UniProtKB/TrEMBL annotation, chain A:
Record InterPro entries: PorB-like, THDP-binding, TPP_enzyme_TPP-bd
Identification of the protein by name: Pyruvate synthase subunit beta
Highest taxon listed in the record's lineage: Bacteria
Organism of origin: Thermodesulforhabdus norvegica
Domain Thiamine pyrophosphate enzyme TPP-binding: 66-205
CDD domains assigned: TPP_PFOR_porB_like
Length: 300, 401
């Protein structure tokens, strides 16, 4: 699904005056997510950079309904919105989206998300992944990749690989699951349109480069995002009713056989400044072997 | 026509929730309240109650579901106890801050560590400052009645409410309970009206970040700061006391049992010494009073029904008349005394006049330790030796000394 010709609506739901950092990948992506889901969306969100994007009382630059919740309870809050709307006969009027960061998903939110997914709650869950606790000042999360410096891995870069959360979520058999990256807005738009039409638990992982957290210039957000995909660090796919497909740029790469070395992605970011050559090689091997598995799965 | 059923406290809570036509229920098992969600799920599965029942994976999520469902307008219910309640702690603050009228029944149980499944009131009393209203039930009838009243009060003042009752002593003990008809409950508790409507045309950001200073909205109106929202919560609690009394009175008019007073009193008219208690402990105290009155002692009981908002004036007005107040409680605020004793003293200091009664703080019945009427008689006999500046423990190890 490369979706180059989809018509993206003009209407904006992320209005001028956001408080997120210049070059924020999350903000770029959110614009297309809301265009895809439309005004009848209720988003529920925990403490994270998305809270900041939603503004400070009594103003908000976001033109859809939002319900804030505690850090661990995003999916539970969504389940409550879904149940409440259903009990009132209003479930057809709204799309319920839960959206949390990697910390609020991979770490603290996992219990509520696992519960809601197992109960096949009718909602879209989006984890936007900037690979650390950014809102509290770039501390390590279980989504932080091996070799990254954070404020809680300040001298010894993170020693453990990123948690394989996609496999965990796939094991919950969501009705629809997809990955996307803020550098590919049309792909985001198309996947969220698709997710909106489905029933049951839909899970979307969204990779969002973060200039201050990752250590690259604010002008490079799209470039870093593209390199994440072009090197295979992030793989774009969807699993629709159990059927796996590479999509967008990842599909083109699979067809052309061209994949860039991870070092091209790493060298743009200060967080990887302390990675040793051996660590880079180990990461390359890991990315290659994962890529091979995806290629195998995508074969018809 | 009266319909008296012989039921447990858990059954009374579940039947009451059903009579209130709750629309969303989310609950997690924990002894001694598990029967409540079991019964409610049965009502829902059999079609006797039209509600969404969410079998959540934790109490934190139970409250997460309830509070968000409540925000969109559903009447929501949950039940828990002890560690389940403690696990919800963050969500309790959030629910009160979000001003959602969730009602929760709590079958009071001691907290770990070490584990106990048995009764005391440490669980709910240590949630005192979360912003929830708290009602304490004397018997199973009060459980049923308070769940119904709690919704009416909560939906009027927009504060969540806990209906607390002693685990096992009430939750698992059968008693006659008059179960009102659905028609009467419907008339007393109409369906919930939301003071706002969520629509795509007027999107709102609910419970966002709020600053320490008041800020203008896009039209230039100055809006509350964080402390301003906290002030509104406190005012809602202050207003709630009046509403609780009115609703308690109206309940009496419809159902024949008035709860206008935030306490029930027994044999206090000529008393010089009064037991001050909460929950089912009042019945042991009443038995003790009957026994002691035969021996000519002028004793009575005051059982508090409402702990938050605290009926400071109401309790002080009556308690100031006695010489000695023996506050017997199944909870302790470690490092100080029993929580109700502190409240009673503060209420007397604020609203009473000299000479103030002596107030004794007595810890009893933690973790299910039996409290018999004889124990309460024993406590009064020991009063001369008890110093009011320290809580005394009615416990074998302390009694030896
Ligand atoms: C129970 C609890 N613990 C800790 C926090 C503090 N906290 C707020 S935001 C945040 C980090 C969020 O990280 P992530 O979910 O990755 O989102 P990001 O800020 O990176 O966008 C933390 C730890 C909290 N709000 N609640
Ligand atoms: S810290 Fe990163 S994710 Fe958060 S607002 Fe800034 S750029 Fe966006
Ligand atoms: Mg993050």
């Amino acid at each position: 699904m490369s979706a180059p010709f989809v018509e993206i609506p003009e209407k904006e739901f992320v209005l001028p005056g956001t408080r997120t950092c210049a070059g924020c990948g999350l903000t770029l992506a959110y614009r297309y997510i809301l265009k895809a889901l439309g005004p009848d969306t209720i988003v529920t969100l925990p403490a994270c950079c998305l809270t900041i994007l939603h503004g400070i009382y009594p103003k908000t630059p976001i033109a859809i309904n939002a319900v804030n919740n505690t850090f661990a309870s995003t999916a539970a809050s969504a389940a409550g919105l879904v149940a409440g709307l259903k009990a009132l006969g209003k479930d057809k009027d709204f799309t319920v989206m839960a959206m949390a960061g990697d910390g609020g998903t991979f770490d603290m939110g996992i219990q509520a998300l696992s519960g809601a997914a197992e109960r096949q709650t009718d909602f879209i869950y989006v984890c936007y992944d900037n690979e650390a606790y950014m809102n509290t000042g770039v501390q390590r999360s279980s989504a932080t990749p091996l070799g990254a410096l954070t404020t809680t891995t300040p001298f010894l870069p993170k020693q453990q690989p990123k948690k394989d959360f996609l496999t965990i979520m796939e094991a919950h058999s969501p009705s629809y699951m997809a990955t996307c990256c803020s550098a590919y807005p049309r792909d985001i738009y198309a996947k969220f349109r698709k997710a909106k039409e489905k029933k049951g638990t839909r899970f979307i992982h969204l990779a969002v480069p973060c200039p201050p957290g990752w250590g690259f210039p604010t002008s490079q957000t799209v470039r870093v995002g593209r390199l994440a995909v072009e090197t295979g660090m992030v793989v774009l796919f969807e699993i629709d009713e159990g059927e796996f497909k590479l999509t967008g740029k990842s599909l083109t790469m699979a067809r052309s056989g061209r994949k860039k070395p991870v070092v091209e992605y790493l060298k743009l970011q200060n967080r990887f400044a302390k990675m040793t050559d051996e660590q880079v090689e180990a990461l390359q091997r890991e990315v290659d072997s994962r890529w091979e598995k995806y290629l195998e799965r995508s074969e018809p | 026509m009266s319909n008296v059923q012989i039921i447990t406290g858990n059954q009374a809570a579940a039947i009451a929730a059903k009579l209130c036509r709750v629309q969303v229920i989310a609950a997690y098992p924990i002894t001694p309240q598990s029967k409540i969600p079991e019964l409610l799920s049965e009502y829902v599965e059999k079609g006797e109650l039209k509600a969404e029942f969410i079998r959540v994976e934790s109490e934190h999520s139970a409250m997460g579901v309830c509070l968000s469902a409540s925000l969109v307008g559903a009447r929501t219910f949950t039940a828990t106890a002890a560690n389940g309640l403690a696990y919800m702690h963050e969500q309790l603050h959030w629910a009160a801050g979000a001003r959602v009228p969730v009602v929760m029944s709590v079958a009071n149980r001691g907290l770990g560590a070490p584990w106990t499944i048995l009764n005391d009131m440490q669980d709910t009393l240590s949630q005192r400052d979360t912003g929830w209203m708290q009602f304490y039930c004397f018997n199973n009838q009060e459980i049923l009645d308070y769940v119904i009243m709690a919704y009416r009060v909560a939906e009027e003042v927009l504060l969540p409410a806990m209906v607390c009752f002693d685990g096992f002593r009430l939750s698992h003990t059968v008693m006659p309970v008059e179960v009102p008809s659905q028609e009467l409950v419907d008339a007393f508790l109409p369906s919930r009206k939301l003071p706002y409507e969520l629509t795509p045309d007027n999107p709102v950001n609910i419970n966002p970040v709020v600053m320490g200073d008041r800020l203008p909205d896009p039209e230039g109106n100055i809006c509350p700061d964080y402390m301003g929202f906290r002030l509104r919560m406190q005012k809602a609690h202050e207003e709630a006391m009046g509403v609780i009394r009115e609703v308690g009175k109206a309940f009496g008019e419809v159902f024949g049992r008035s709860y206008e007073l935030p306490y029930h009193a027994y044999q206090i008219d000529d008393a010089d010494t009064v037991f001050v208690t909460m929950g089912s402990l009042s019945s042991e105290a009443m038995d003790a009073v009957d026994y002691m009155r035969k021996a000519g002692r002028k004793v009575g009981v005051l059982g508090l029904r409402v702990f938050r908002p605290f009926p400071s004036k109401e309790t002080a007005d009556i308690l100031a008349n006695f010489n000695k107040l023996v506050v017997v409680e199944k909870a302790i605020s470690y490092g100080y005394e029993t929580p109700l004793a502190t409240e009673v003293k503060a209420a007397l200091y604020t609203n009473g006049s000299n000479p103030l009664p002596e107030v004794y703080s007595v810890v009893v019945g933690l973790g299910g330790k039996d409290v018999n009427p004889q124990d309460l008689v024993g406590i009064t006999e020991k009063l001369e030796k008890i110093s009011p500046d320290r809580p005394s423990w009615w416990h074998e190890e302390e009694l030896k000394q």
